[in-house]
Amino acid sequence: MKSITRQKTFEEIKAQLERFDRPYIIGCGTCTTMTKTGGIDQVLEMKNRLQEINKRVSGWSVIPIACDEMTEIAMKENRKAIQDANCILVMTCALGVHRIGQYIDRPVIPALDTLFIAVEDTPGFFREVCAQCGQCILGETAGICPVTMCHKSLVNGPCGGTNNGKCEVDREKDCAWTLIYQKLKDQGRLELMRKYHSPRNYQIEPRPRMVKIS
């Protein structure tokens, strides 16, 4: 499972850094390295671009896994350069930004937008697989999630716009409910297509959520 991120425009990053002249840049050696949004190459490119607009980059690092305990260790190893900075520009997913913010009293500025959690089907091709909705129906949809695979997130489908197995929103995309139908048919469980799912209860899991395992 990987966090899929997209770099913010440089204009947006510049606007966020307007009050700060000495950023320290942090990337991630896992997800954002794989998606080429916050690995070594992208961090160094960002460093050069910031220096071109007269920002004095105090240093940079790429944490092996920016969303776990490695973050605190890396922050301690680079304490001097971080203390010389007046903000941290973070090229990780949102979870990494949150984690880094826990270990530093400097402002943390995200350079990326986090899009979704995905699996890699083929090298360089990532597909969203779970919206973490808290109401899983995969047992009744042949392991295919309609919430993430259907553009309309229909839990009762298909809609009237499907045509020859393709989605009306994206004609290049397979209709999720056609895929569900075919797989249920192959499994001899086609009667599940007739099961009605009540409207989704978006208050079933109040946010922010917390789980304690004892």
Q: Which oligomeric state applies?
A: single chain
Q: What's the structural domain tally? A: 2
Structural class of the secondary elements? alpha/beta
Q: N-to-C terminal Cα separation, in Å?
A: 26 Å
Number of strands: 7
What is the string of SSEs from the N terminus onward? EHEHHEHHEHEEEHH
- Classified by CATH, the class of the largest domain is Alpha Beta
Characterize the overall form. elongated
Give the count of helical stretches: 8
Strand order of the largest sheet: 3-2-4-5
Helical content (DSSP H or I, runs of 4+): 25-40%
Nearest-integer average pLDDT: 91
Using only C-alpha atoms, the radius of gyration works out to 22 Å
CATH level 3 topology of the largest domain: Rossmann fold
CATH architecture of the largest domain: 3-Layer(aba) Sandwich
Model regions low in confidence, pLDDT < 50 over at least 5 residues: none
